[in-house]
Amino acid sequence: MYKFMEKMENLFFLAKNAIFIYHFIFKGSIHLKQGGTMVDSNVVLFGQTLAYTLYCIAILLLMGWFGMRITTKTGSNVVKPALFYSFVGFLVVLGVSLHIVTYNTIPWSPVDLNRSDYTPDKKFEITVANHEFQLPAEKLTIECHDLVLFDVTSHDLTYGFGLFRQDNTMVFQMQVVPGHRNDILWKFDKPGVYSIRSTEYSGPRGVPMIVKDAVEVLACEESTKE
Predict the structure, then answer these.
(1) Which domain range does residue 134 map to?
(2) What is the structure's pLDDT at 126?
(3) In the listed set 87, 111, 135, which residue is the last one of a domain according to the structure?
(4) 125 φψ region: left (φ > 0), alpha (ψ -120 to 50), beta (else)
(5) pLDDT surpassing 50 at residue 25
(6) Most buried among 46, 132, 191, 209, by the most CB within 10 A?
């Protein structure tokens, strides 16, 4: 029993350190301060994909090892309960910890939870009705490093509001519900041109709800580089 508890303590220690490293690399870089930078959503996606892929591989390896041990015809096919439950306990701790940590890796999470601490540099009021986006200008121009508030109102159905890069990867998206406040703060630290798309199903007419090259972030000044 003592050896079992010692193994569990070591596994908990390893899990704690793994989560601390992930927390430091990904969540630590996401906390946005006024005038700071917001981590790119592609970085968050890569980090979460890597973490959960390794977690799934660990589960599959455990299942494979257990199945091989109990079905082998040579040698001992007995799996010691202490060893088995040590691995199971480690996976449970690691899985729960990943869920807790990755919850905070969403780039706009700290902004939404502390909205009063942030003052947007620019605000765009956008309306949606009859499967069409109504923008305040033909092209929404943003200065590099601006913190922008997108305030979107629906007058009929539930739509989505998503900003997409030129390679069709998504920067962010939110659900736009009629009769509710729908807004999102985003910090733009790279120049680029983006398209707006509806990311929620609103019937067949909602499929082509795309405004190409609707948002442009101007080039960053050389003086901002260190």
Answers:
(1) 119-224
(2) 97
(3) 111
(4) beta
(5) no
(6) 209
